[in-house]
Amino acid sequence: MSQLQVSRINDSSGGVLAPISSVMRNRIINGAMVIDQRNAGASVTPANGVYTYTLDRWAGFATQASKYTVQQNAGSVTPPVGFVNYLGATSSSAYSVTSSDLFMLSQFIEGYNIADLGWGTANAKTVTLSFQVYSSLTGTFGGALLNSAQNRVYPFTYTISSANTWTSISVTIAGDTSGTWLKTNGVGIQVNFGLGAGSSNTNTAGAWTTSGYTASGAVSVVGTNGATFYITGVQLEVGTQATSFEYRQIGTEISLCQRYYEKSFDFPTAPTSANASGGSYGLFTTSGSAGGLTTAYMDGYVGYRVEKRAAPTVTVFDEAGNAGKCTRINPGILATSNQQWSYGSQASTGFTTTTTNGSNAGRFSFYWVSSAEL
């Protein structure tokens, strides 16, 4: 799923030096904020105390509800050169954070995708985090890198000097030689961008420590009503310098996102949309002998386009957009939504259905979403 990039550099005599290759240079997925499977560009308000997924792979966190919204291309400003999309966070009030408050945007990088960094060993590699940022506020902003246990933390700061102007930022971080860093399908690295935090959730920037989610002394975006924080071109790569943003073909980027979240709805359609396009279908049959069954039932299987990180959580929708329901269509009979649904097995490669529907045989339709987020 990653791309192989090969560069050839001419030496002074006109010869060609050895190729320089890069595989999976950017460990961030959807760093250009192009993919938004869940919301199709609609605004999202992060809930209280949970990670609320917004654009693909990007989650908003809030210890108080309704303090900010997240939307693809919020405010409709012109993106930085070379980009079409950005993630936009907008403050919904002028909220004064308490010591225990925390508001942030996060991406969780799977352990398999950072295993080569050697973090937690003497051979830990240095990385550079780079991005383009735009805010109605100026000053010192904060963020952090964390391990899965959230007990190894590197808070960082960066400066936005000009309001409402795209600013290129890069932060170089020496790899952590201590702690436990997962190298499996769990959380390898959590990347945070702070939007406001109290003293209990911050720590001093510039060194590895054992607590905190962002840097202390940073600007609080949620502290100003209508304040904006826009970001795109996020890249985390090995090395001491930021390189140009690694673009991937759209099919590759979608597939990377689908390892964590996939839907049967068409790409530009948000789940739960009534009468949406895209769907999966089964067929009711009637049996009076197999296992003593005398009612119509559907026994089917849906295979994923991309194998999931782990066995996911599946939600189905009928054609009216009702969760946990399906639609029955008999020949010559109008579709009937709100029909009974039950799951069979759920695995990383797909799921089965074992739905009964009384004695009413017919075509059985449903839409679905499957989430295996970290």
What is the helix fraction of residues, given as a range? under 10%
CATH classification, class level of the largest domain:
Mainly Beta
CATH topology of the largest domain: Jelly Rolls
User: Order of strands in the sheet with the most strands?
Assistant: 3-4-7-12-9-10
CATH architecture of the largest domain: Sandwich
**Content of β-strand:** 35-45%
Q: In words, what does this structure look like?
A:
- This protein has 374 residues and is mainly beta.
- The protein has two domains: 4-258, Galactose-binding domain-like (Jelly Rolls, Sandwich), CATH 2.60.120; 280-371, Immunoglobulin-like.
- Helix content is 2%, strand content 38%.
- It is built from one helix and 25 strands.
- The protein has one helix at residues 250-258; strands at residues 4-7, 20-23, 51-53, 59-62, 68-72, 87-91, 102-110, 127-135, 139-146, 153-160, 167-173, 187-197, 202-203, 214-215, 228-238, 261-263, 280-283, 285-286, 296-303, 313-317, 326-329, 336-339, 343-346, 350-356, 363-371.
- The strands form six sheets. Strands 3-4-7-12-9-10 form a six-stranded antiparallel β-sheet, with no helix packed on it.
- The longest helix is centred in the last third of the chain and has 9 residues, at 250-258.
Summary of the model, kept short:
Helices cover 2% and strands 38% of the residues. The protein has one helix and 25 strands.
Descriptive labels:
mainly beta, 1 helix, 374 residues, Immunoglobulin-like
